Amino acid sequence: PMTVLEGPPGAGKTALLATWFTQTARPAGWLSVDADDVDPIRFAVHFAAAVQQAHPDLVRDLNGLCALPRSAEIEVIWAEQVVAPLRESGARVVVVLDDLHYAYAVSKIAAAFDWLFARMPPGLSVLASSERELPSGPRFPVRSAISRAPEGLPPALSVPDRLCPDRSEEHTSE
Hints:
Blueprint: E1 2-6, H1 13-23, E2 28-32, H2 40-54, H3 74-89, E3 93-98, H4 101-104, H5 107-118, E4 124-130, E5 142-144, H6 167-170
Parallel strand pairs: 1-4, 1-5, 2-3, 3-4
Helix pairs in contact: 2-3, 3-5
């Protein structure tokens, strides 16, 4: 399943996600999506890295994926690095995607999410925030918004080491 928190900047989406992330007992990985994540391969690798945060032995060599040609398909990366390992291991993980609207604006990434949700392993859940409404449908079953940031919450978290830094310079937006 995928849960999307939608709301304007400053509404407290990231604070709410960060609080949940720091307090959950469930294995979880975090990706702060930004404008550089519009490169489909880079986004796919960062998504796999978020799974790796929760299960370090589950996801294989991510650095090698950065060298994939632009014609590579996100679905192939997710099939090999996320879907198959989660199905085989039976592991459970929540991937938190803060500011998903940046990447979701790229049609190739949005289409890859349709592919992923059609093949979602039972152990994978996605919790996301977005400043814009994402397309609705049966694959987006829960939608909520918050109107103000709760007080006293920890700062936002991010993937400590960004992978594929050179790819963002090559990408031209759709």
